[in-house]
Design brief:
Elements lengths: L2 E6 L4 E8 L2 E9 L1 H5 L6 H22 L9 E7 L3 H18 L3 E5 H7 L11 E6 L4 E6 L6 E5 L5 H11 L6 H9 L23 H16 L6 H27 L3 E5 L6 H14 L2 E3 L11 H13 L17
Parallel strand pairs: 1-4, 4-5, 6-9, 9-10
Antiparallel strand pairs: 1-2, 2-3, 6-7, 7-8
Length: 332
């Protein structure tokens, strides 16, 4: 049984996992949320330095947690993009050094492919499929005819959904990271405020959340300026409803266009309870199987990198020793 040790350092989570033919043996994540919370967002240089401090001890912890040694590892997998270039370099350099020292194959994994393949840790999925990928830096609709073949149907033209969540939360003075806070706060309010749903030109599967973000910020600013009551729970519920409406509607359009066998969702915002419910209802309406990772595997982790590395390992698609970090690496 082939075992892959996977490394993920694309942003502010240092993560190491060991995956054996699609089965998760160990999943270790060292979060930097407390470090970056005082700044209201990720500071790239601090994230890189923290990866340097944390990665090697985390690798030892992953091996010890399943009582394995280096002879038991058959390949090294690493995220080489997209992400913060300094953070990516820590993981890529470590994986390259280990692969060279151990004479093991090196596997390069796209971070967004990892998010999609987190779904495969629960078992095989039926192709063709449509996957909505929603995270802090990405909002994309991906079509997969078969394993490891990606076609981008639509993507954000400005703010990603997760980015909009975080910016609105910060503007409202809510704790970092803002997405989970807004999700919980929305349950205390009602979506009574009419914020815009930007659908772009007819037939487009692209997204735009900058207008919605501006509308919410203007509403908050006007209330503060005129000393009007500011119901943050209603704002959270109304903003979140607008985001979910657009994401679900665009996904429905993608389903009509591609006729997939299954619907997937992935990325950090896929942990949002309102979006999970809306996407599940859409899948039921369209008669599709639906899968979304558990919340712990929606945010950045190395288990998803190991899952995406498995088909690469089977196909013998080794990365060269010249592998570099690619901060703007595309999925298609």
């Amino acid at each position: 049984m082939a075992r892959i040790l996977a490394i993920e350092t694309s942003c502010d989570e240092t993560a190491v996992a060991i995956v054996a033919e699609g089965k998760l043996l160990s999943n270790q994540v060292a979060s930097q949320i407390d470090i970056h919370a005082r700044f209201g967002g990720v500071v790239p240089e601090i994230a890189s330095r923290q990866h340097l401090l944390t990665l090697n001890p985390l690798i030892r912890k992953a091996l010890a947690s399943c009582q394995l040694g280096w002879p038991d590892i058959d390949a090294l997998a690493v995220t080489n993009g997209p992400g913060l270039v300094g953070a990516l370099l820590v993981g890529v350099s470590t994986a390259k050094a280990l692969a060279w020292a151990l004479n093991k194959p090196l596997l390069a994994v796209n971070h967004m492919a990892g998010h999609i393949y987190a779904n495969m840790l629960a078992g095989p999925v039926e192709f063709p499929l449509v996957c909505l990928v929603v995270s802090g830096g990405h909002t994309e609709l991906i079509y997969m005819e078969r394993d490891m073949e990606f076609t981008t149907l639509g993507q954000t033209r400005d703010d990603a959904a997760g980015e909009a969540f975080d910016k609105i939360a910060r503007f409202m003075g809510l704790p970092y990271p803002g997405g989970p806070v807004l999700d919980k706060l929305a349950y205390q309010g009602s979506p009574v405020l009419e914020f815009p749903r930007t659908m772009l030109e007819e037939g487009s599967l692209d997204f735009s959340f900058s207008g919605l973000k501006t509308a919410v910020m203007n509403h908050v600013h006007n209330c503060r300026q005129k000393d009007l009551p500011l119901n943050t729970a209603d704002i959270a519920a109304s903003f979140q409803r607008a985001v979910v409406d657009v994401l679900v509607e665009k996904t429905a359009m993608a389903i009509e266009r591609t006729k997939p066998a299954s619907l997937l969702m992935a990325g950090g915002v896929a942990a949002n309870s309102h979006l999970r419910r809306g996407m599940k209802e859409l899948a039921q309406e369209k008669g599709l199987s639906f899968r979304v990772p558990p919340p712990a595997l929606c945010t950045d982790n190395a288990a998803m990198i190991g899952a995406a590395a498995w088909p690469l390992y089977k196909a013998g698609r080794k990365a060269p020793s010249s592998l570099n970090a690619l901060p703007n690496l595309g999925l298609s």
